[in-house]
Amino acid sequence: MQVWMNGSFRDLDEASIPVTDRGFLLGDGFFETMRAHEGKIAWIDAHMERLDYHAEQIEFPVDLLPATDEVANVVSTLFEQIHRKDAVVRLTVSRGSGERGLLPPADPDPTILITVSPFEPVEPAVGMKLFTSQKVRRNAHSVAGGIKSINYLDNIAAKQEAQSYGGDDALILSSDGNVAETTVANIFGIKGETLWTPDEDTGILCGLARDFILEWAEETGRDVEFEAKTPDMLKEFDAIFTANALQGLRVVDMVDGLVIGVPAMTFFAELAQTVETSLCESIVL
């Protein structure tokens, strides 16, 4: 198995970072996780735009990032190792090595890594069980929380907590106790022909699948509501689902032991198929 690192392809066991790397020592970096279908990255332009956004938020020079065409070509080459139609692509950026201390070097020499791994999509109708995290809250003012920071400790802790309860993932609340998102996805509710999702001010990372769904709702004439909801208010919805750019949509059939509505009686299947088709056809937003 090979990876791409700092401009060249390397065998996995030969790729390494220095012990002074700030990503390793301080979590000073960011990443994008992407879906590749038959060698092409879905929504690649949107992913690369968000990569630029991550860089800008931590004052990392955008011109040091690989170009979209280069990333596409790298993934196409690495994809040949995957004997599946789908793969998960991770592009990781660390600010690289620097002197001891918090302030980064004025002229960073980053570590940039691209990996491609086998991925098996899960059917949207396969239900998930969520449990509300008691340990972790989203902070709307957090820089790390607003980007895909390589410091993922909050999400790791929440996922471990949910697993200890017998859940598939954690429902994470905002600092004021309202529903925000899961560890890896945005969350939506359906009531009749109306969609609901938490507002940006809850401290969520607004995902590309979320953007796609909101655009779809506008195009199909469906209303979207953003008002705050506590976990016990989720029972008012006909269906709950999660969304991210890797897995697409996943129905939620239980929150904190409470059974949620029946997605088959909503427009969930139509929307799930629309998202999956877009991911497989590599349509950019």
Key traits:
single chain; 285 residues; alpha+beta; D-amino Acid Aminotransferase, Chain A, domain 1; D-amino Acid Aminotransferase, Chain A, domain 2; 9-stranded mixed sheet; 6-stranded antiparallel sheet; 6 helices; 29% strand; globular
Number of domains: 2
Distance between the termini: 31 Å
Q: Give the mean pLDDT.
A: 95
The largest β sheet comes out as: 9 strands, mixed
Residues in helix, %: 10-25%
The CATH architecture category of the largest domain equals: Alpha-Beta Barrel
Note the topology.
Elements: E1 2-5, E2 8-11, H1 22-26, E3 29-37, E4 40-41, H2 44-57, H3 68-79, E5 86-94, E6 111-118, E7 128-138, H4 153-164, E8 169-174, E9 179-182, E10 186-191, E11 194-196, H5 208-220, E12 224-225, E13 239-244, E14 248-255, E15 258-259, H6 268-281
What report would you give on this structure?
By secondary structure, this protein is an alpha+beta fold. It folds into two domains: about 1-120, D-amino Acid Aminotransferase, Chain A, domain 1 (2-Layer Sandwich), CATH 3.30.470.10; about 130-280, D-amino Acid Aminotransferase, subunit A, domain 2 (D-amino Acid Aminotransferase, Chain A, domain 2, Alpha-Beta Barrel). It is about 25% helix and about 30% strand.
